[in-house]
Every structure is written in C-alpha cells, then in structure tokens.
Recover the amino acids of this structure.
C-alpha cells in the first residue's frame, strides 16, 4: 500500500530534480529543448493564433488598422509608400554600385523585386510580459521561410528578422530586441518627401530595449522630430533596404559630446500590436545565390 | 482533484497568457492569468496534487513562452524558470492556506500578488545565475535584475486585479474539481 502511495511522490521528485538540472544546464546542452517546445507548439499554435486574432480584433487602433486601410484611397497611399521605398532602395543601390564597382562586376545582378514575395505569417506565440521578445510565427521552411528573412508590416515598415526555422513554424526577433546589432540607416527629412536616400544623414541606430532606437548625429546636421529613418545596411538582405525603421521622436543635446545630438527613433509598429506580419521570402532562393543575404 | 478539469482550464489560461493578454497590456505590463489558477489549486487541492499542478503548469509555461534570443543567431528554449518559480510560489501558498479564508475572492487576489512576486524572485534569480555563465543568451533581466523585478511588481498588481473576476469564476467551478478536502462551495466576494 505504501509503495502505491509513494509512486506519485517519487515521480514528482524525479521530475523536480530533472527540472532543476535543466534550469541550470549550460545553453550549449539545451539545443533539443527547442524541438520539445515546437512539438508542444503544434498543439498550442492554432489556439494562440485565434487568441492573437481576437486581441487584434479588440484593438482596431493597433492590429487591424492597416488591414482595414487597405481599401480605396488608403490602398493608393500604401502603394505610394511602397513605390517610394522602391525608389529609395534603387537610389541606395546606385550608391552602393558606385562605391563598390569593382566588386559588383563579379556579382550577378538580379531583379530581386520580382523574386521576393510577401508571405503572411500569423504570430502564434508571444511573451506579453516582454514586449520586445522573440515571437513565434506559423510559417516555416515548408512555406519557403529561411533564417534571415525579414518581416514587414504595412508594406514598408520593418518589423524583424527570422532567427530560427523549422518545417511548420519560425521564430522572429523584432528589430527593437536588445540583441539586434546596430543597424546602418539614413535620416530623411519629413519636409522633403522627394529627398533621395543617398542624401540622407548616415546613422547607426541601436535598440534601447524599450521599443525605441538611439543614435548620435553630428550637431551640424539638422534633424527634426518626424523625420523618417530608413534602413541602408549592406549586412541586411536586399529586400530590407530602404524599409522604414521608424520616425525621429526626440532630438536632444549630448552632454558628454557637445558636437553631437542624441536622436531617439520610434518604430511605427511594434510586434505586440500585431497579429500577423508579412515575411519577404525569396522565390528563387538557391538558384539566385545568397549574395545579398546577411 | 480532477486532473482533466485542471488540464482544460490550464490549457485555456496558457493560450490566453501567451496570446490574448496583449489586449490588456499597459506600458509593457500584462497580467499572468495562469498564476491565478495556481493559487486556486494550491488553496484547495492536497499538497502533492497542488505541487504537481504547479510544476506541470510551470513546465507548460516554459514550453509555451517564445524562446530567448542568443547573440548573433539562434534561440534558446529554457525549461525551468517558470516551473521552479511556480513551484516555489505554490509552496508558499500551501504554507499560509490554513490561515486564510479560502473561499473569498479577495484571498485569491492577495495571494496572486504574493505568488507572482515569489515566482518572479525565483525566475529572476535563475536568469541572474545563468547570466554569469556568459553563454551569449539574452536573459530577460535587462537593463538590470532590479528593473526586471520592479516590472514583475507591475505584473503582480495587474494579476491580482484580474484575479478578482477570474478567481470568482474559478470558485464557481469548485464542485466539478472534486477536491478531496471537501470544502464548501459558496463563493464570497468579501
């Protein structure tokens, strides 16, 4: 009788000891835990997706604002934003060609615009207590997703980058995550909508961990609140070039360096506001090479 | 205790905790619904059942929470922080449950606050200890462990507020749980 009663207690003790060991085991030995979580996620993901959709439905000013806006006049506005990004991206490309002519002569130039397709991916798992944490998406390698694919929203707003992929789901790190390395970008004047990106002010934005970015700009350059910050980094995929990182929300003097100003950049959208993102997936992956992928 | 009932309610709260609660987010602070269930179970179930439920709920939370980011590329799913944190919180509730009015929603609310903070202490401690390894994992203790703990204070207050309606709902389901101790089924807001 006592052995029957002690069986659950022994099982509990065993699981507890294993949990303790796992909690303090070095990260290098825990590669398999991701697979366990993914198997668990297969059961959980459809329900989480429903939960996220409900959250977006209840927050019209957040999640579905852009989706609703994609009709009529708003559609034209979004198209204009897309074409503006493509134009800026082309300008950036020209500048890169000028700077790296010798190297680019050896690289096959493909029209990536025709090869990159947007793929809607719903956010299934998230940590609401850490707004900038990694999120799970319901698209994986079966849909053509690969590590380093970028996630956008509203066509031109950069949201994050895929850091892990399995067959049916992937994990995306928001650009505002503290682990995101500094991103090369350009500041373009809000009062000059036709300003080419190559005339923009070069900056290096760093995530602060609170959903915003920080950078330093020479005081001689005029930066105003509302200016647009676009990505211009060669270590990011070409499909990410000239994407909007955010807008300047604060400019203040740098007390430690009087010749520079501190600029705070705030993204238009953050992952906790969204129920889905668009992944830009390369249709010709493999045949086109990985030249532009960082 | 009926484990099927626990499993269904735990699953529902786990899904809400990792998706829907963003709708309740205020300044990056969101409540933790599953901890209310933890408190409820610890108030009424037998000791071993309560601790097993805490460990199970914590393990499920560890697996359901998106992974931690590693420097460069890659992610890490860490099993343990929620499990051990929830277990510690459950143990605390078990120590005080004979001294409280179990069937009052206020009790669940106050104990939810205590349990969230207790779990947060353990989770933050595990992350701090692991950050000493220098294994390139970005643990959620940024910019500092104290800041992280203060944010958990916000989560605790928010969870305690949510525990008022959720605790009432759980107390209303007491008859279907078949707790062995045979507690009364009356729900009282005071």
């Amino acid at each position: 009788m006592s052995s029957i009663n002690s069986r659950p207690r022994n099982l509990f003790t065993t699981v507890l000891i294993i949990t303790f060991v796992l909690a303090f085991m070095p990260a290098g030995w825990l590669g398999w835990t991701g697979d366990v979580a993914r198997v668990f996620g297969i059961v959980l993901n459809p329900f989480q997706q429903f939960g996220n959709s409900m959250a977006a439905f209840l927050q019209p000013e957040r999640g579905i604002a852009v989706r609703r806006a994609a009709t009529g006049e708003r559609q034209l506005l979004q198209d204009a934003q897309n074409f503006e990004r493509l134009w800026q991206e082309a300008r950036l490309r020209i500048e890169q060609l000028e700077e790296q002519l010798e190297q680019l002569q050896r690289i096959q130039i493909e029209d990536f615009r025709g090869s990159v397709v947007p793929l809607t991916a719903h956010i299934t798992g998230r940590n609401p207590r850490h707004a900038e944490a990694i999120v799970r998406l319901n698209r994986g390698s079966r849909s053509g997703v690969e590590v380093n694919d970028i996630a956008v929203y509203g066509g031109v707003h950069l949201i994050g980058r895929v850091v892990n992929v399995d067959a049916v789901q992937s994990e995306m790190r928001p650009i505002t995550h503290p682990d995101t390395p500094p991103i090369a970008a350009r500041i373009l004047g809000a009062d000059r909508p036709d300003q080419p990106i190559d005339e923009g002010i070069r900056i290096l934005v760093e995530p602060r961990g609170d959903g915003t970015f920080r950078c330093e700009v020479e005081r001689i350059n005029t930066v105003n609140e509302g200016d647009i910050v676009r990505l211009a980094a060669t270590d990011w995929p070409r499909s990410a070039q000239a994407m909007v990182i955010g807008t300047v929300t604060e400019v203040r003097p740098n007390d430690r360096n009087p010749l520079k100003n501190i600029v705070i950049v705030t993204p238009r959208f953050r992952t906790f506001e969204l129920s889905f993102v668009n992944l830009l997936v390369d249709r010709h992956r493999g045949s086109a090479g990985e030249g532009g992928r960082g | 205790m009926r484990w099927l009932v626990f499993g269904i309610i735990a699953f529902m709260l786990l899904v809400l905790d990792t998706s829907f609660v963003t709708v309740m987010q205020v300044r990056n602070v969101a409540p933790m619904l599953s901890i209310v269930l933890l408190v409820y179970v610890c108030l009424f179930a037998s000791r071993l059942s309560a601790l097993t439920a805490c460990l199970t709920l914590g393990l499920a939370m560890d697996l359901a929470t998106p992974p931690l980011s590693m420097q460069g590329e890659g992610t890490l799913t860490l099993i343990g922080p929620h499990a051990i944190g929830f277990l510690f919180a459950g143990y605390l509730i078990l120590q005080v449950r004979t001294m409280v009015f179990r069937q009052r929603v206020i009790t669940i609310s106050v104990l939810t606050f205590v349990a969230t903070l207790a779990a947060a202490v353990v989770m933050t401690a595990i992350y701090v200890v692991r950050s000493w390894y220098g294994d390139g994992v970005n643990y959620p203790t940024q910019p500092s462990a104290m800041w992280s703990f203060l944010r958990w204070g916000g989560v605790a207050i928010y969870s305690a507020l949510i525990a008022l309606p959720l605790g009432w709902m759980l107390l209303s389901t007491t008859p279907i749980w078949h707790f062995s101790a045979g507690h009364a089924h009356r729900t009282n807001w005071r």
Observations:
- Confidence is low (pLDDT under 50) at residues 182-190 of chain B.
- Residues 3-19+27-66+76-177 of chain B form one domain.
